[in-house]
Amino acid sequence: MTSREIAVSFLCERTRLYGILHRPCQPSEVGILILAGRPALRSGRHRLFVLLARAWAEAGIPVMRFDYRGSGDSEGEMGTLEQTHADIAAAVDAFQSNIPGLQKVVLWGQCGGAADAILYAPKDGRVRGIVLANPWLYDSRVRSVAALYRLGSLYLWRVRKIFSVSANSTSAKNLMEHPYPGNGPEVSLPFETPEVDQAYRSYRAADISKRLANSLQEFNGRVLIILSGKDTGAQAFKRTAWFSLRWRQILSSKRVRTKELPEANHSLRRPEWREAAAALTFQWLRDSI
User: Fold this and answer.
1) Which residues are within 8 A (CB) of 108 and not within 5 positions of it... i.e. 6 or more apart?
2) 7 in Cβ contact with 18 (< 8 Å)
3) Are strands 104-110 and 30-35 parallel, antiparallel or unpaired?
4) What phi and psi, each to the nearest 5 degrees, are found at residue 49?
5) Domain 3-139+195-288, CATH number (from 3.30.390.50, 2.102.10.10, 3.90.1300.10, 3.40.50.1820)
6) CB under 8 Å to 201, separation ≥6 — which residues?
7) Strands 127-133 and 222-228, how do they pair?
8) Angle, CA of 31, 216 and 264, to the nearest 5°
9) Can you give the pLDDT of all 289 residues of the chain as single tens digits?
10) Peptide bond into 39 cis (omega under 30)
11) What whole-number distance in Å separates Cα of residue 237 and Cα of residue 280?
């Protein structure tokens, strides 16, 4: 290996946070700070962030990943979306102090971590680019329209199935008892603590789509968006953005590049999906930052 993995700890408002620094032998002046979102850990599902960080570090790019307050090894309580600014700022400071030649930082955020990156980026001149992987984008009006569409589609599916029942097919009774095809509707997982509950709700604020658009327009750096074709969150992002003229204008900007991995899932579980995301990020860094 041409890189080392170093455990790091740093303070965020008198709370101790922990992370891992991937340091190449000859680090470039551009580094990637991975934002896992909450309650995801710095390793990522299926060790996604570990494997991405190692790939980039082997290519000479320093990488740091860390646990937010109240997540993983880090101390403290989980905060709202607005409170992640302090965590990210402390992480950028720690990143630079451990890589003295680091001049530019790219935030690489997945899902809620992408929302964190968007809102933080304009506030820190050290951040020159952001990568948004299957980004979170919520708009209650669009969700309501989509829900009505799903209900209509479900009704038609049930009607077709009930009227096509045969001796070799599922009974009408079972169809009524188990009406959802495939994986069924999205299920809300129970919140473990009031702090986790409050953190989740902050990402569903009524004005969150507008605030994210404002912040992304304010940010002058480069943006790469990676969408998985089989991820419901990525498709919700596309649907929500399509309904908004402002979001369509943002995504059509020359400084914003969007790439889709048609067969990939949310966590980029398969090696070929993860490697594609790593390569897209690396090429974008070389071309844009």
Assistant:
1) 32, 33, 34, 35, 52, 117, 130, 131, 133, 281
2) yes
3) parallel
4) -70, -30
5) 3.40.50.1820
6) none
7) parallel
8) 65
9) 689 999 999 999 999 999 999 999 999 999 999 999 887 899 999 999 999 999 999 999 999 999 999 999 999 999 999 999 999 999 999 999 999 999 999 999 999 999 999 999 999 999 999 999 999 998 755 444 444 334 444 444 454 544 444 444 333 333 233 333 333 333 344 456 788 888 889 999 999 999 999 999 999 999 999 999 999 999 999 999 999 999 999 999 999 999 999 999 999 999 999 999 999 999 999 999 9
10) yes
11) 20
Beta pairing, strands 63-66 & 15-24:
antiparallel
Task: Give the total residue count for the chain.
Answer: 289
- The ranges assigned to domains in the chain are 3-139+195-288
> What does the alpha-carbon distance between residue 150 and residue 147 come to, in Å, rounded to a whole number?
5
Q: Which helix (H) or strand (E) holds 258?
A: strand 256-261
Q: Give the pairing type, strands 63-66 and 256-261.
A: unpaired
DSSP string, 23-45: EESS--SEEEEEE--SS--TT-G
User: Would you state the structure tokens that stand for residue 191, as one six-digit string?
Assistant: 């919140």
Burial of 36 (0-12, 13-18, 19+ CB in 10 A): buried
Give residues with Cβ within 8 angstroms of 250, minimum separation 6: 213, 216, 217, 241, 256
Strand bridging mode 104-110 / 127-133: parallel
Say which DSSP state 287 is in: H
